[in-house]
Design brief:
Layout: H1 2-31, H2 39-45, H3 58-65, E1 72-78, E2 81-87, E3 92-96, H4 108-121, E4 136-141, E5 158-162, E6 170-174, E7 180-184, H5 186-194, H6 196-199, H7 204-207, H8 210-238, E8 240-242, E9 245-247, H9 253-277, H10 292-299, E10 319-325, E11 328-336, E12 339-344, H11 358-365, E13 376-377, E14 395-400, E15 403-408, E16 414-418, H12 420-434, H13 438-441, H14 444-473
Antiparallel strand pairs: 1-2, 1-10, 2-3, 4-5, 5-6, 6-7, 8-9, 10-11, 11-12, 13-14, 14-15, 15-16
């Protein structure tokens, strides 16, 4: 008992403010998530392709890259002309579509032109486009507070452009591809300093070194979990039954801490435990990412088109994307955030469709293993949700033995690989930490109220520990 008291007391003194910070910032994060560029924002910011000039073919640009592992080629329009973007497993390549010259963006003026064009194009519903009239170049940086996540690594360094509009919008332009890859507003930046930055312990000086940040947060959250576990044991052991009801031997702040601890112990323990698991990254559970070899089997070995891209019928696409799927080469034309055309380039007079069919996903999925099932669409409220790159488009699930594979009907990408370990992790981390259980996700208002009320209870409990810790130090 004495050892438990010492461990809980001193871990509590060290981590009481961390608990206060985590519960308070968790509420903020629920309403203002970390800045990102949404599919709709990205798509509407693209300029429709003009198909002017003598474009080279996708086969030509892949050959010019010198890479044998290009998995996807995209054609976009920039202020300096059409550009091919090639996706390899470990990096991105960009080349001008007419000359095949490298198309990285090193010039500040070019970055401002790209950001300005994106801002003028971008419209969300009935909202007016962004106003870039006063845009200025801010900096070229490997990392800043809003660009530290790893999903931007292939685009670094990033050009930051300040639009100086009423919302304080800033756009980040990839030096690798010349695309806008992130946006932030003054509102997002302010609330995220009170939310994600403190919750994830995300100061730039630490987060830009992913290994150091990972070890730091993993150790801190594990120590906090031990502190909560010892407190739970002590809270139960210290509770007495008198006259048929539980009583506490404590008075004042200690009594408040005891009763609030008992009342919130299930939520606090599961929340801190699942928060620690957020840093697992494949240590205890599978990470859910398909291998490069599995993605290659879904694609097959089609030949890149040697024909020069030309406009199709209907509206001009904002992006053309070529990718292998079940041994054929697909051409995907993105028209707007909710509209696209898919055409197999290897078939003569092939009809275009909006999305891949379940039959096509089944055929491609059986390249993974002999026992793969027929593809089924993931229904709303599924316990293991996977979302398409195009909002509302179905994602197909193919079951191969005890492993689930997911194929995006919009992009043909192999998105998730959920073996039993990864499915367990989904419940142990995501469901416990964000309460995205299917029954609650179907009632978002109820889920929001539960998150806020439980977080406030955890915050009150943590504040009693802070007062007790301060008095002990005095």
């Amino acid at each position: 008992m004495r050892i438990l008291i010492l461990i809980h007391r001193w871990l509590g003194i060290v981590f009481c403010l961390f608990f206060v910070m985590w519960f308070a910032s968790g509420i903020v994060m629920h309403f203002v998530p970390f800045p990102s560029l949404t599919h709709t924002e990205r798509t509407t910011g693209l300029t429709p392709l003009a198909f002017n000039g003598a474009l080279q073919s996708p086969a030509d640009v892949v050959r010019a890259s010198g890479r044998q592992d290009i998995a996807r080629v995209r054609l976009i329009e920039r202020p300096d002309g059409p550009v091919y973007v090639m996706h390899a497993p470990d990096r991105l390549h960009a080349r001008h579509a007419i000359t095949l010259a490298p198309a990285q963006v090193a010039d500040a003026g070019a970055a401002v032109a790209i950001a300005t064009t994106h801002a003028r194009n971008r419209r969300l519903g009935d909202a007016a486009a962004l106003d870039p009239a006063a845009a200025t170049y801010a900096e070229l940086a490997l990392h800043d507070q809003w660009s530290v996540p790893n999903n931007l690594d292939l685009h670094r360094p990033l050009h930051r452009i300040a639009l100086n509009d009423d919302a304080g919008t800033e756009l980040y332009v990839s030096s690798t591809t010349g695309e806008v890859v992130r946006d932030t507003t003054r509102h997002e930046r302010f609330w995220n300093y009170l939310g994600s930055v403190v919750h994830w312990i995300y100061p730039t000086v630490l987060r830009r070194d992913h290994g150091a940040w990972h070890v730091t947060v993993w150790v801190l959250s594990l120590a906090a979990l031990i502190g909560a576990l010892t407190g739970t044991v002590l809270g139960v052991l210290r509770t007495r039954i008198a006259h048929g009801r539980p009583t506490s031997p404590y008075r004042g702040w200690m009594a408040w801490h005891h009763w609030l601890g008992l009342g919130t112990t299930l939520f606090v323990l599961t929340w801190i435990f699942s928060g620690w698991l957020s840093m697992d990254q494949g240590l205890l559970f599978s990470n859910g990412r398909p291998s490069v070899a599995e993605a290659a089997r879904i694609a097959g070995t089609p030949l890149w088109p040697r024909s020069v891209p030309a406009p199709g019928s209907g509206p001009a696409p904002r992006e053309v994307d070529w990718f292998g799927f079940d041994g054929d080469m697909m051409r995907r034309e993105l028209i707007d955030p909710a509209t696209q055309r898919l055409t197999p380039t290897g078939a003569q007079d092939a009809a275009s469709a909006n999305l891949l069919t379940g039959e096509a996903a089944t055929r491609a999925g059986r390249r993974l293993a002999a026992d793969c099932s027929t593809a089924t669409t993931i229904p709303p409220g599924d316990g293991h949700p996977v979302h398409s790159v195009m909002p509302g488009a179905p994602v197909y699930r193919i079951v191969c033995g005890d492993t689930w594979f997911h194929i995006d009907s919009a992009s043909g990408a192999l998105m998730k690989k959920l073996d039993p370990s990864a499915r367990t992790y989904r419940w142990a981390y995501s469901a416990l930490h964000t309460l995205d259980f299917p029954v609650l996700s179907a009632h978002p208002a109820l889920r929001t109220w539960l998150i806020v009320l439980l977080s406030l209870a955890g915050l009150a409990f943590s504040l009693t520990g802070t007062v007790i810790g301060w008095r002990r130090l005095r």
